[in-house]
Write the C-alpha cells for this entry.
Amino acid sequence: MIPPRESAAFVWRMEAVLDLYEEPYDEKRPVVCFDERPCQLLSDVREPLAPRPGGPAGGARLVDHDEYARGGTANAHVCFEPLTGWRRVEVTKRRRKREFAEEVRRLAEEDYPNAESIRLVLDNLSTHTASAFYEAFDPEVARCLARRVEFCYTPVHGSWLNMAEIEISALVRQCLGKRRLADEETLRRETKAWERERNLMGTSVEWRFTTEDARTKLRSLYPAMQE
C-alpha cells in the first residue's frame, strides 16, 4: 500500500520507467535493466541415491530433504536488455557498492563499449548510486562511468517495474529451483549455462503496460485525479 503523500513521487518515477520502455531501440543509448538476488548455497550430507525402476518420474535421484549442509550465500547479478533479448549473470560472494560498480563498469567497457550512454533501470538499493564508482575506481574512471550511465530508478514499492525482476524469476524457475548448489563455482557454472541458452534463443519480455494503462488502472495513485 502506497501512502497518499508518496503517490505523486511514485507515479513520477513509474511514468519515467514506462516512457523509457516505449522508446525504440537505440544502439547508442541502450536500455538495460539491472537487479540482483541472494542465493543460499547448500550441499548434500548424504550422496543422493540413483533412480530405481518404479521410482520418481523422470528418473530423478532420491535426495534426503531433511539433512543438508549450509555453505553460506552468494549473489547473482542480472543485467538484461529487453529489446535485444540479451542478458548476463555474474555471481559474487558479496553485494557491496564495489560489486555494483564492477558490474556497471563491465557493462560500459565490455558489453557496450561504443554506446554514448547506458540507461540503467534499477531499484533504490543503497549501493545503486554513482558514488559507488568513486569508492571502487580512480576518479578519472569513476567520472567517465558517471557521465555515461543514466540512472532510471523504479519508485519505492515499485520494483515490479524493473524487467530484470522478471528475468530473475525465470532464472529461479528454470535453473535454480529447488536444486542444491554447493558453492559459488557451481552456482556460476549453472547460471552461465542458463544465460548462454537464453541468449541463443533471444528470449525477451513482451512488456505491454504503458503510461496510458497506468493512468487508467492505477488512477487512485494520481493525486490530482482524486480532487
